[in-house]
Design the sequence.
């Protein structure tokens, strides 16, 4: 018995040594670099976060060839930020301490991106954000931080203008007390005040289950429209309970509401009464001209329709790969520095992505961003991508 | 049959029912008169005028019209708290230590119940179920949640508390906190295995989401629907039945007598031929059963559960048990109802009374300030004087 064991053990040692030797040999030929991603891969926002990572994965697979030809081996290093600022920052510290990582695609939540990107900034790591809409993401003016979507100071205004166009005279504004949710709700409220809608209340809540107490003042005011700034996991539960208590008006939310899980939670209650709308910076993948192939490839690889922001994940990754390629070419084929990659991202001109053509302004906002308002059409979560677009706008970011 | 009926102690069935009615009505009347007085006092001030401007009603009318709904909401959550609080209080009564893992036992009950319903939903059974059948399935889910939570509670006691019984009182407390964290992450791990999404949504079926409307109340330019959803009724009725059953078990059966004996004096009880370990296991079992049922009811009422769902209800139920006088069954019932009411009243009215400065997000601060005040003046809790009757 013992003899067998030792034989097996020596075999194992020999095998692992061979593997190690191979590893050494190949490392000498190719220069290994990594691109990190951060998004919620577990927890209730993982539905969106996982597909964001998959989008990046797909981009690396399809667009990694130019870098491979130059002798680079690009690896994806996915991190799970759990939609939690503490976890995001802890991951960010691990990411910047790995010298092979040259850029990071990430974050779904502005409240996570903002503190995490302070870490990227201090070590000069380029960050392309596929989804973060809070103005502060870019207004800090960091060279490393860019995003490919619109901003909440525009999205909130789009929401308020849309509410007025529906004929809403009174609104009740709620938010989830995160940087993202509270931010967009404040922009919504400001605009609503400006254009003459009556804001009956403005409240934040971290409650996830029992909205009874919060709903009493809302139902008493019976506003034409209830606005929620935050994520679907809270908004859908709140909308469901409001409808069950007899609220017949309209619900309006933001791009955080854009997930099929919203209708899994609230179902028919989203369709009843005045219906449910949400503004977003990321239309369903099908609205973009270049995404037909992306959707087909995504379906073939992962056997499901892409969630919102998956295509943006793909584009963010494509931008990073292109920037690394440019920086490497400029450096004569050597592995580029983080600073060179960050500079190369900002310098990209008219990069053709699948969700648009991207040029970043001096603070990292795209020069033009798309904003959509969508209407929930079906109580069936499988038909979430059939939600109809009621409004599309192209707006340049505010100058500041 | 006749002998069986005679053997039932009817007094022990009616007494808790009476207590529940008295506590519910009492706390409703006290809190209602409090807010109405406050509303009358503030009506002509800036607070009243701000409301007049927004909703076109006087503060007094606003308060009055909203009252019935607030009371109903408060009672619903109050009974959930009471059912959980009984688990804390039973264990405290017998072992004099706080079982902090009880909130996770509640969560496990919720997850088991909801997972069973989700499985039934996938098999198509839920959608095709008739109304009667959907109640049967709900009962089945509740009972499964109870059994799982009860079994878990007994296991936790056997593994994490019994070996420490001779140690100082802080040691099992730390063990309980450890078990609590362990269970939270265990649920997260197990539920996250398939998709990474560890939250679950209570499938909608039957008529539980419907609402019984009692009528409309005019409020300024709008009207308020006064009503109660079927699921709230189910929560209240189920909690009442459980509380009555528990009261009967403790006060009118041989096992209950043994539980009370162990609570009063463990060594002497064991000299009288009571198997103390068995009785302690039974105490945990009963607490776990109640907690598990409360978990499924909580999921039914509030739709969405996550692995950390037990934390806040557990904390509040613990507070309720302390408020009522920990170790005292009637006290836990009273504490649960009062805390649920306080929280809902605070959440519903704080916004208008403070002109929107402190909205319902501060409801917990308010409820817990009251708790602190009560404990300053009555450290033994509201029902604390009945030490002899502790279970």
Sequence:
């Amino acid at each position: 018995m013992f003899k067998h064991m030792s034989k097996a053990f020596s075999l194992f040692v020999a095998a692992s040594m061979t593997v190690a030797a191979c590893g050494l040999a190949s490392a000498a030929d190719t220069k290994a670099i990594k691109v990190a991603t951060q998004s919620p891969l577990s927890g209730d926002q993982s539905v969106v976060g996982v597909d964001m990572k998959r989008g990046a994965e797909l981009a690396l697979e399809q667009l990694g060839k130019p870098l491979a030809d130059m002798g680079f081996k690009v690896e994806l290093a996915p991190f799970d930020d759990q939609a939690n600022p503490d976890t995001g920052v802890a991951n960010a510290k691990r990411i910047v301490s790995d010298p092979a990582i040259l850029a990071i695609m990430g974050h779904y939540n502005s409240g996570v991106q903002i503190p995490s990107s302070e870490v990227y900034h201090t070590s000069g790591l380029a960050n392309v954000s596929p989804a973060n809409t809070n103005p502060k993401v870019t207004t800090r003016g960091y060279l490393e931080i860019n995003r490919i979507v619109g901003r909440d100071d525009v999205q909130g205004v789009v929401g308020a203008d849309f509410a007025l166009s529906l004929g809403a005279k009174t609104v009740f504004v709620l938010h989830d007390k995160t940087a993202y949710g509270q931010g967009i709700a404040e922009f919504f409220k400001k605009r609503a005040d400006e254009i003459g809608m009556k804001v009956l209340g403005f409240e934040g809540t971290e409650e996830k289950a029992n909205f009874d107490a919060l709903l009493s003042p809302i139902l008493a005011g019976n506003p034409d429209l209830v606005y929620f700034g935050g994520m679907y996991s809270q908004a859908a539960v709140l909308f469901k309970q409001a409808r069950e208590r007899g609220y017949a008006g309209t619900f309006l939310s933001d791009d955080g509401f854009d997930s099929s899980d919203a209708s899994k939670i609230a179902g028919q209650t989203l369709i009843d009464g005045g219906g449910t709308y949400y503004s977003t910076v990321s239309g369903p993948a099908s609205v973009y001209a270049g995404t037909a192939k992306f959707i087909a490839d995504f379906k073939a690889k992962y056997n499901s329709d892409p969630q919102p922001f998956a295509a943006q994940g793909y584009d963010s990754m494509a931008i990073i790969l292109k920037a690394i390629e440019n920086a490497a070419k400029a450096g004569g084929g050597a592995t580029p520095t983080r600073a060179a990659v960050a500079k190369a991202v900002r310098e990209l001109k008219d990069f053709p992505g699948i969700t648009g053509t991207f040029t970043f302004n001096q603070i990292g906002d795209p020069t033009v961003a798309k904003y959509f308002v969508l209407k929930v059409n079906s109580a069936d979560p499988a038909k979430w991508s059939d939600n109809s677009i009621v409004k599309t706008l192209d707006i340049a970011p505010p100058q500041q | 049959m006749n002998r069986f009926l005679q053997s039932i102690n009817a007094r022990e069935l009616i007494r808790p029912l009476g207590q529940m009615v008295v506590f519910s009505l009492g706390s409703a009347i006290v809190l209602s008169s409090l807010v109405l007085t406050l509303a009358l006092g503030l009506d002509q001030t800036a607070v009243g005028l701000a409301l007049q401007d927004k909703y076109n009603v006087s503060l007094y009318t606003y308060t009055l019209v909203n009252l019935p709904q607030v009371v109903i909401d408060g009672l619903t959550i109050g009974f959930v708290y009471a059912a959980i609080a009984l688990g804390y209080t039973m264990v405290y009564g017998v072992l004099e230590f706080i079982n902090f893992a009880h909130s996770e036992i509640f969560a496990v009950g919720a997850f088991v119940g909801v997972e069973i319903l989700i499985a039934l939903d996938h098999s198509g059974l839920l959608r095709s179920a008739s109304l009667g059948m959907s109640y049967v399935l709900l009962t089945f889910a509740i009972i499964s949640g109870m059994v799982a939570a009860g079994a878990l509670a007994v296991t936790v006691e056997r593994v994490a508390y019994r070996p420490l019984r001779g140690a100082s009182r802080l040691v099992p407390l730390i063990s309980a906190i450890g078990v609590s964290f362990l269970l939270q992450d265990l649920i997260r791990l197990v539920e996250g295995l398939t998709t990474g999404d560890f939250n679950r949504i209570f499938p909608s079926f039957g008529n539980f989401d419907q609402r019984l409307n009692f009528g409309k109340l005019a409020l300024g330019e709008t009207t308020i629907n006064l009503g109660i959803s079927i699921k709230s009724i189910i929560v209240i009725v189920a909690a009442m039945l459980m509380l009555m059953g528990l009261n009967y078990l403790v006060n009118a059966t041989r096992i209950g007598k043994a539980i009370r004996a162990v609570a009063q004096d463990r060594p002497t009880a064991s000299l009288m031929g009571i198997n103390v370990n068995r009785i302690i296991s039974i105490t945990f079992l009963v607490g776990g059963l109640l907690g598990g049922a409360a978990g499924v009811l909580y999921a039914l009422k509030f739709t969405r559960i996550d692995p950390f769902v037990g934390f806040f209800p557990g904390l509040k139920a613990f507070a309720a048990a302390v408020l009522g006088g920990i170790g005292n069954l009637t006290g836990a019932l009273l504490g649960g109802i009062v805390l649920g009411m306080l929280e809902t009243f605070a959440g519903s009215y704080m916004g208008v009374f403070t002109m929107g400065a402190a909205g319902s997000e501060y409801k917990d601060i308010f409820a817990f300030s009251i708790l602190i005040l009560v404990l300053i003046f009555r450290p033994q809790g509201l029902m604390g004087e009945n030490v002899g009757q502790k279970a």
Observations:
- Chain B touches chain A through 50 residues (CB under 8 Å).
- Strands of chain B lie at 200-201, 211-219, 222-229, 304-305.
- Chain B has one domain: 11-389.
